[in-house]
Amino acid sequence: MEKQQVQSVNVKGFSPKANILFSVLMWIVAISCIFPFLFVIIISFTSEQSLTTQGYQIIPSQWSLDGYRYLFEMKDQILQALFITVFVTIVGTIVNVAFTSTYAYALSRDSLPFKKFFTVFVLISMLFSAGMVPNYIVMTSLLGLKDNILALILPMALSSFNIIVMRTFYRRSVPDSIIEAAKIDGAGDLRTFIQIVLPLSIPGLATISLFAALGYWNDWFNALLYIQSDNLVPLQYLLMKIQANIDFIIKNAATSAQLGSVTIPKEATRMAMVVLSTAPIAATYPFFQKYFVGGLTIGGVKE
Asked: Cα–Cα distance between 250 and 189 in angstroms, integer?
């Protein structure tokens, strides 16, 4: 009986009590991660008067849609900015993954000439940046992309960190024997990469795709530098401008009798903007979850 119990503990790794303890801890961690976003959603549906008098509450005394109504008045601008953000995110992610995956695959092969040089080049560019001024001069003067949608895509079209991640992934998940077998069968480098390497690298590609998509979705700084047309403003930058306009109106409301009579749901609108900017990208995460699990376990030892 004791041997069976010891064997059960060794197979599972932990005793039943330890498993229950770790399960409770994981639930606490999960709730602590989910609760802030749920709290933001609750605040976005709270009336401004309740927030002013009673502060933030889990169950507010008065519910309201004033924050969303205020944003709905600017629905044309928000929808246009949302379209720009979605377009930039999709196209930028495709470009980023295409450049990153091909560069990383070349670095993962020992037959690459000057492999050390290109590896050091990536590492240096990851650790050191030329700065904002050279980037601005290149984008505006050299490439002429001022007030162009490409200015929102090209600055993040290549990620040094993602290159290192994918290079390691290729070396662990794509054996040299498979590539050599493909070459023996007459496949070229491009065909080998597309038909053999990429299908084996879906977990890694999904991981860097999510990294790239998050970067493009949350980017507002490039729009601040390069975009002047209202038709090319992305969602994050537009929401920042709306927040700045609300702060400006509230600060100067005392100087105008007309503005003094207008009540703007500042906090509710701010939280509504957080929901609008976060919910779409958060909704896509479950579709990538299984690939993250595959990416974490693919380096395990197989017997």
From this structure: 62
